[in-house]
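Practice problem 4.
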């Protein structure tokens, strides 16, 4: 992959995550995550849509040669996009941790 390694983000003056508030849509914004692709974008989108405060969640990769994903979130106004994304990422982490635990338990049965 031609993407810069994670340590190079400091050298390039970029952080891994950026946020831009939407000026036309209320309670909405776009999170840009560098060095990620459809895998993370779709996982986060699905998790965001499970939150009852989320009105819209979608993602896109601006260009196939750019290693970044943009996640757009609109909330109902009771919570801001930051809070909804943070809760969704925490829930996703818990889900993946439980999946990993169950997978390892099943795998140990066959050893």
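Answer key:
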């Amino acid at each position: 992959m031609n993407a810069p390694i994670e340590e190079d983000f400091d050298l390039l003056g970029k952080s891994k995550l950026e946020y831009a508030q939407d000026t036309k849509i209320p309670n909405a914004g776009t999170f840009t995550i560098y060095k990620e692709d459809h895998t993370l974008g779709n996982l986060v989108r699905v998790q965001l849509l499970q939150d009852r405060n989320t009105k819209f969640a979608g993602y896109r990769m601006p260009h196939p040669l750019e290693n970044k994903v943009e996640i757009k979130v609109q909330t109902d106004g009771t919570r801001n996009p930051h809070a909804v994304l943070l809760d969704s990422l925490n829930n996703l982490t818990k889900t993946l941790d439980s999946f990993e635990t169950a997978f390892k338990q099943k795998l140990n049965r066959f050893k």
